[in-house]
Give the backbone structure.
Amino acid sequence: MPSDQKLQTIASIKAAGVAGSDAAESQQITREGLISSINNALEFARMSQRIVGLLMVHLIRPDKLEAMVGAASGELMKHALLRLQGALRGADRYTAVSDEKIIILLPNLKSASQANLAADKVQRLLEEEFSIGQSLVHVRPVVGIVLFPDHGEIAEELVVHADIAAGVAVSQDVAQHSFQHEDRSDSDVYLGLEAPLREAIRTNRIQLHYQPQVQLKSGKCVSVEALVRWDAPDYGPVAASTIIRIAEISGTIGTLTDWVINTAFRQQTEWKKLGIDVNISVNLSTINLANSELPEKIQQAIGTWGVDPQRITFEITESATIGDTQRSIAVLNRLKALGLKVALDDFGTGYSSLSYVKNFPLDELKIDKLFVQNICDSAADQKIVRSIVALAHSFNLQVVAEGVEDDARLRELKKLGCDLVQGYVFSPALPASHFANWMRARP
């Protein structure tokens, strides 16, 4: 590139705010704008021989169980993001990527030590207690650090490596961890499976399996949860959570979700023709809930397959609502207007609070298996489940318990007033034809 053209390009990137003045105020960006902001920073760094840093900040709550009825995760994240405003350089950008993670972009660094100094500053800033309503909330920030060009060449790769570095820090119980090449195995799986996943979606080589949900009062299977499955070439079975992360990173989550919705709706219609009439639950990701076109796509699928919207539930996690709560509520209200139901998944583990139950248009709470596993041995877990059931029923919400593995837990959940259960005590997730056979074999 000619030198004058190079200078002009650098000037245009600076004008876009990538390498702005340190005297300016750092900016919060949207999740959707994250990758483009990183790409701009990388372009500038390549031309100016500078370094780009990414910090993945994982906010760990020591009082996680108490948080269920304490400060809302959305309020905590808002306070954390406000605290970062003005504390970073003017060129820096940041956004929440889940209910407990913040990613910070540090463009135009002169040395790697600047990223470590920024990580130290962020940790000191977020370690101070938060005053939210009537509660004093403490967090332990753990930071994963990656650098361009040492730890990756493209935006998506750097984000994955930052997430992995934060995970290593959490697992080793240290405050910070800079990405090491020996940490690369997980990222190689993600990045190496992007193209095969795109092809699998395009050629219909992924599957849905269906896990029964059994009503405790009647003992009948009244619904199923649709779970994506993929046996990747040269790799083998890929966990559903990994499939979703790959799809989000690669930008194929919208296509994957469209496929899941249409496949699940079609299957429900086919089962009904066989005399198997069950409700069906489908999971939505963070990015799905940010898509304002989602309700129209779902409405189109309802018309295509002729399903009853009142027999469809969409499951969300709290992380799907972080960043723009009002937009999330607006999208969910549009789904409710179509007659669909909404469930809050993993309740009790994501800093769930009364404000979520009060403000979101919910029909169902799903108790995470973390509390179900020890329900027969832990008085604390029994109290938590009893409290969730009482809370849900006071708001006329149904309660589903996940991860129920044996009859002892089943009996305990029935005593505590749980409405539905799913887990190996009845069946793992099954392919559609196997589920039909399972239903026929039930008394």
